[in-house]
Amino acid sequence: MATLEIKDLHAEVDTEEEGSKEILTGVNLTVRSGEIHAFMGPNGSGKSTLAYAVAGHPKYRVTSGSVLLDGEEVLEMSVDERARAGLFLAMQYPVEVPGVSMSNFLRSAATATRGEAPQVRHWVKEVKQAMSDLEIDESFSERSVNEGFSGGEKKRHEILQLDLLKPKFAILDETDSGLDVDALRVVSDGINRYTESGDKGVLLITHYTRILKHIKPDYVHVFVKGQVAESGGPELADELEESGYVRFTGKKEAAAQS
Amino acid sequence: MTESTLETSGRNGLDESGAQNSAVPPRSSRGHRFTSYDVRAFEVPGGREEDWRFTPMKRLRGLHDGSASATGSLEVEVTGDSAAKVETVDRSDERLGTAGAPADRIAAQAWSSFTEATVVTIPKDTQAAEPVTVTVHGPGQDRTAYGHLQVRAEPLSEAVVVLDYRGSGIIGDNVEMIAEDSARLSVITIHDFADDATQVSSEHVHLGKDAVFRHFAVSLGGDLVRVNTKVTFGDRGGDADLLGVYFADSGQHLEHRLLMDHAQPNCRSNVTYKGALQGDSARSVWIGDVLIQARAEGTETFELNRNLVLTEGARADSVPNLEIETGEIAGAGHASAIGRFDDEQLFYLQARGIPYDQARRLVVRGFFGEILQKITVDEVRERLEAAIDKELAAAGE
Ligand SMILES: Nc1ncnc2c1ncn2[C@@H]1O[C@H](COP(=O)(O)OP(=O)(O)OP(=O)(O)O)[C@@H](O)[C@H]1O
Ligand SMILES: [Mg+2]
């Protein structure tokens, strides 16, 4: 049983026009293993910023608050230490790394997070299975990480990494956006396979409610202006689908269903 | 602050797509160069001249002004495939100088100053199965030596030649690489000197009809290394690929100047150089000139230079330049870029648990990978990979 606790987290980013700008204005959130939290909010509310701040992206400066993983301060760890401690971020825009093959990358990541190099024979099988589950063609193994991948292919590969690395906690940043109906099903199945064991915690950031038809959240949070504005059960997602964020923002913006 | 600079001239600037069938009259030609075997025909450069403005003249140790007289000699060893004929000849040998004449004062100085030359010949219609390795040892610390080497692949022959520069000293030399009609010649040049070394090398490449030339230039060691590479085509169908990698550390100056002189129709040239820089005052210069002369119809050419600035305080200059004097070309283009080490890539790898040092190594290896992959001599490729890893480890960041 593991716990990820985010307490009164404030973070800022350096912008070219306005200097440093506070984006997270006091985030409180606790995710326990076995729980799926849907995290919804309008564009620009700071969802990705929260994800990056927890993962340790150098662009985002945490000014106060804390992030505890089983009581250990995550903010004091380097980016790779956080990942080895069991945190995973599926990025909204996965990064291309030219010249580094997907297979080399996956193996390096598995070696790092597991603490030892996986046995070659098992590993090859494991990767093959995971790729075929996500309907990823084998030829991707020899391609450079994310280079020239379509938006949907990148998202599938994020979930491929999730399935292989099996972190304690996963923050999935709009993994559903840019996917067609079939891809959404394939990717959702991948996420459900990951949580199957019942000991994983997920923070599912999304702008749309359609992925919640495939992945049933235990909790739903509405995120506005860098804070959790309201938390509830799955019924909150239904309300968002009906009436959008207007109750929270005062502006008309639908939680598009597409 | 990272003082990386990027300059472009010629019609495409940063455009990677390449120009199609377009002729632009050059403002002032960099392609048509004065050449002479006589050192006195060149003025002593002061450092402001176009050809010298990036070079720290003091660190040339007198190679450019006649003050560096020969106080030592180069030791040249040739090993490898026995099909290659190796000769040591004196200045009077008529084959010398046929690939091209010196285009700057140091090349002319080297031409006037060498006493014996090494000629490696791959005889007609012979395929050398094994690489031929020419190891050139510098004259030793603070000694000056001038050298001359010619590699000649006779018609229909095929060979891979590794030119491996090592050691210390001050070196000025000319290297002729000749691929005669339908020959296939690959030359891998490795400048891996000790920290004190200064080398100014002029490479004269000449291709016969339907000749295929492959060049890998690798610059790692030395205080100052400046390499001029000029490719000329003697007839139609010549095909030249020039790939380069360099890694400049603290205090190093690595300069590569290339000129693809297309004076014949239906020839092809492709230049791809990639460099990484790290440490205080690490410096690299890349000048890529392409001249497509009026009669060189059907020319196809592309040149690319990319630089990865790994730390603050390093500086890369990159100047691609394309002069086109005919409208009937198959394609021409160039691209050049200087990038900071990519924090996003590093973050992505680290976010998957990969430790910083390893992530950095993966990114830099990936950057050079495209070129290193094409080195077919395994020992050389592995040596370079190891050298790059070592450079990265040395940064200790
Ligand atoms: N690197 C940055 N430079 C400047 N502003 C930034 C930067 N990163 C984020 N911001 C700003 O911070 C705010 C929150 O951005 P963030 O990407 O976290 O929002 P989001 O909720 O993920 O939005 P979306 O639904 O569009 O993905 C926005 O106003 C954004 O413009
Ligand atoms: Mg976002």
TrEMBL record, chain A:
Top-level division of the source organism's lineage: Bacteria
Pfam family, one: ABC_tran
Alphabetical list of Gene3D superfamilies matching this protein: P-loop containing nucleotide triphosphate hydrolases
InterPro entries: AAA+_ATPase, ABC_transporter-like_ATP-bd, FeS-cluster_ATPase_SufC, P-loop_NTPase
Keywords: ATP-binding, Nucleotide-binding
A GO MF label: ATP hydrolysis activity
Residue ranges of domain ABC transporter in the record: 4-250
Family to which this protein belongs: Belongs to the ABC transporter superfamily. Ycf16 family.
Name of the protein in its database record: Fe-S cluster assembly ATP-binding protein
UniProtKB/TrEMBL annotation, chain B:
Region ranges (Disordered): 1-35
Biological-process GO terms, alphabetical: iron-sulfur cluster assembly
Family: Belongs to the iron-sulfur cluster assembly SufBD family.
The name this protein goes by in its record: Fe-S cluster assembly protein SufD
Biased composition (Polar residues): 1-11
Domain (SUF system FeS cluster assembly SufBD core): residue spans on this chain: 141-367
InterPro entries listed in its UniProt record: Fe-S_cluster_assembly_SufBD, SUF_FeS_clus_asmbl_SufBD_core, SUF_FeS_clus_asmbl_SufBD_sf, SUF_FeS_clus_asmbl_SufD
Superkingdom of the source species: Bacteria
One Pfam family of this chain: SUFBD_core
